[in-house]
Design the sequence.
């Protein structure tokens, strides 16, 4: 297969993936730092490079509403947003997943107001973690591009039929220029396949009612069906990730481990920080510290068993949360990791950290310090702290 | 244009067994809409009485495709349905001519869904938006909306000892939609079947965004007998509180001018929501003055736009 090597930003990579997928409908609204994705895509539409009907709505609420209407009409449907835009979609995200529409969205992680801030953290995506969407995080542009190409296959799988959001870290990935390996359009289209929606309100000969009021007698069963779909999603994500690997050469799973096999100390991170952590590990290994990384790629469905299995032999673990949940306990990732460890019967000292809110830089040295703190915990010199802030001004 | 008798001879796409109140106005509106298109129709509805009483799972009163998304986004959702249709038709994946209708109540249209409606109309989707106006939030128990007439008692603007019902005149949504320069904007009432169906037929015959505001009385919200829905929806027209008119490509046409314009009290005294207002002569005079001014303005608009 002839691959094209190009220098692309995360937003360009996302837009290129959308061009190759060539959806029937996109409905979107501008918001920093995701705006570019739709700007670039609008160029593809107006240059006739895609068949997509681009609906330039008047808000993100209407963007997701139009996506619901479109996806319910047998059309492959995509959108892109960020931060306040995702928050404005909140109500309709639950409807999209509830009435089982396989919409695919590119979400660029950005802090939520207030105070208003345009830079990266995961608070927007984390606020939607219970919306019934599959959530895939990306370490870099390549992963974002690759995951976008897998998203439709996952969302549209008959055992799943659940919307998917693929996220990149605002500015860090969205505006960072990187080496991107792109695959030929025809190969991508062959992999993604023809769209077959779960149902279609345009089938006027077989009229159906969608979005019914479902009361005490069926609501619970409705939700259980969604619960089962999310369970099936774990299997399907792995299957699609494996097939992607066979086709394009890069296999994807629910998590990625980096030097965890012999690791005494494991840090858990998501998104671009995983790359920084890998660099920190390289330096620590030279110092003789057995450091490892567990990167969570798929946050929904949450790979609890897989995480617990990796952490079982570690002497101490740290979870880095780029989001506050104001629970006084820990950030959302740490809270979920701890719940998974409890269920698996794994008892390992775990420290949780909050970092990078509003785009605050995290450096290799910051992460090396985390490992050093883990060592101190393992040596009995200190106790694990929860929701400890990294990088605060003195 | 059809009569109810003619319409009853065609297979209905909206069937009985739904749980709307006896005598409710909106099922009449639905039948008027659905009987006015020769092409198949896809319906999108906002949350409200219409949706909750006709789609109680696992039942449905709809024999046309029906999609409900949320409260404030009927127009945006319908724009997505129509957008998908345009895309699939262009790709040759669909060949039928299909019409698209978005329904919303006055709460879902005048208030919470106004932005969604304005956006969808501005974008020019080939769809008809029908506002089913019963002048308050009826599904949640008669709260005031921006369509509620001045002086009406609602649960959030009750007739109290100090403040007597709603203090403001209603928003004029039909004029707001006319200001969008749509090819077709109209106001009608469920009780004038020929007028309503003529307007819906015309709306379906025009390509592009259309808006029809239909007056649909609510028995528990307004307080009148179940047998009087048609009477209520005609009486309001004879007082000129709800003129039936249309704006086609900017030209106004008043479809019915009462031979004798009745005082607003002739309408108000028939409903318990105005009971406390009946003792407040000053407010009644102010309401009458407002209605008179608006009626005069409407006639001037008709005259002026037909001269252009």
Sequence:
């Amino acid at each position: 297969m002839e691959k094209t090597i190009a220098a692309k930003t995360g937003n360009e990579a996302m837009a290129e993936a959308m061009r190759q997928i060539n959806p029937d409908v996109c409905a979107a609204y501008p918001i920093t730092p995701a705006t570019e994705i739709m700007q670039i895509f609008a160029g593809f539409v107006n240059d006739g490079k895609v068949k997509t009907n681009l609906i330039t709505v008047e808000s993100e609420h209407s963007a997701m509403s139009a996506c619901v209407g479109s996806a319910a009409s047998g059309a492959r449907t995509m959108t892109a947003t960020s931060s306040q835009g995702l928050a404005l979609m909140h109500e309709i995200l639950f409807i999209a997943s509830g009435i089982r529409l396989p919409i695919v969205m590119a979400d660029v992680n950005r802090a939520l107001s207030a105070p208003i801030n345009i830079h990266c953290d995961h608070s927007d995506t984390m606020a939607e973690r219970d919306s019934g969407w599959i959530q895939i995080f990306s370490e870099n542009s390549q992963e974002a591009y690759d995951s976008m190409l897998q998203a439709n296959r996952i969302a549209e799988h008959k055992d799943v039929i659940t919307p998917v959001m693929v996220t990149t870290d605002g500015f860090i990935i969205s505006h960072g220029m990187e080496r991107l390996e792109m695959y030929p359009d025809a190969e991508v289209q062959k992999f993604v396949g023809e769209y077959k929606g779960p149902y279609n309100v345009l089938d006027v000969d077989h009229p159906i009612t969608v979005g019914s009021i479902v009361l005490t007698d069926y609501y619970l069963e409705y939700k259980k069906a969604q619960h089962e779909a999310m369970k099936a999603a774990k299997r399907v994500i792995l299957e699609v990730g494996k097939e992607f690997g066979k086709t394009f050469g890069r296999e994807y799973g629910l998590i990625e481990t980096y030097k965890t096999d012999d690791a005494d100390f494991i840090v858990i991170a998501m998104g671009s920080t995983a790359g920084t952590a890998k660099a920190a590990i390289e330096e620590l290994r030279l110092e003789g510290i057995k450091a490892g990384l567990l990167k969570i790629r798929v946050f929904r469905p949450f790979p609890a068993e897989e995480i617990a299995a990796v952490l079982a032999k570690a002497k101490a673990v740290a979870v880095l949360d780029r989001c506050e949940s104001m629970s006084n306990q820990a950030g959302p990732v740490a809270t979920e990791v701890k719940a998974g460890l409890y269920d698996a019967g794994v008892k390992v000292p775990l420290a949780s950290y909050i970092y990078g809110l509003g785009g605050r830089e995290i450096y290799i040295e910051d992460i090396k310090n985390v490992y050093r703190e883990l060592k101190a915990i393992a040596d009995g010199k200190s106790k694990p702290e929860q929701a400890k802030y990294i990088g605060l001004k003195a | 244009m059809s009569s109810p008798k003619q319409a009853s001879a065609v297979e209905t796409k909206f069937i009985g067994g739904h749980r709307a109140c006896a005598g409710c106005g909106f099922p009449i509106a639905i039948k008027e809409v659905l009987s006015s298109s020769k092409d198949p129709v896809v319906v999108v509805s906002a949350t409200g009485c219409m949706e909750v009483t006709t789609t109680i799972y696992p039942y449905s009163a709809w024999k046309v495709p029906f999609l409900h998304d949320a409260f404030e986004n009927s127009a945006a959702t319908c724009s997505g349905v129509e957008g998908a249709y345009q895309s699939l038709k262009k790709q040759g994946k669909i060949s039928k001519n299909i019409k698209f209708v978005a329904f919303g109540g006055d709460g879902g249209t005048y208030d919470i869904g106004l932005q969604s409606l304005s956006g969808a109309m501005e974008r020019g989707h080939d769809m008809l938006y029908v506002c089913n106006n019963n002048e308050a939030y009826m599904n949640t128990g008669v709260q005031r909306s921006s369509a509620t007439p001045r002086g009406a008692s609602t649960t959030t603007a009750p007739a109290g000892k100090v403040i007597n019902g709603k203090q403001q005149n209603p928003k004029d949504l039909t004029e707001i939609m006319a200001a969008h320069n749509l090819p077709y904007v109209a106001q009608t009432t469920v009780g004038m079947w020929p007028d309503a169906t003529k307007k819906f037929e015309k709306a379906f015959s025009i390509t592009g965004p259309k808006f029809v505001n239909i007056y649909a009385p609510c028995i528990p919200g307004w307080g009148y007998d179940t047998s009087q829905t048609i009477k209520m929806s005609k009486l309001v027209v004879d007082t000129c509180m709800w003129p039936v008119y249309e704006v086609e490509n900017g030209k106004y046409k008043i479809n019915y001018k009462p031979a004798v314009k009745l005082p607003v009290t002739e309408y108000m005294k028939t409903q318990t929501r105005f009971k406390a207002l009946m003792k407040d002569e000053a407010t009644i005079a102010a309401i009458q003055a407002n209605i008179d001014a608006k009626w005069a303005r409407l006639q001037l608009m008709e005259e002026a736009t037909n001269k252009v």
Notes: Residues 51 and 57 of chain B are 11 Å apart (CA to CA). The mean pLDDT of chain B is 97. Strands of chain B lie at 41-45, 66-68, 99-105, 128-133, 184-189, 210-215, 245-248, 251-254.
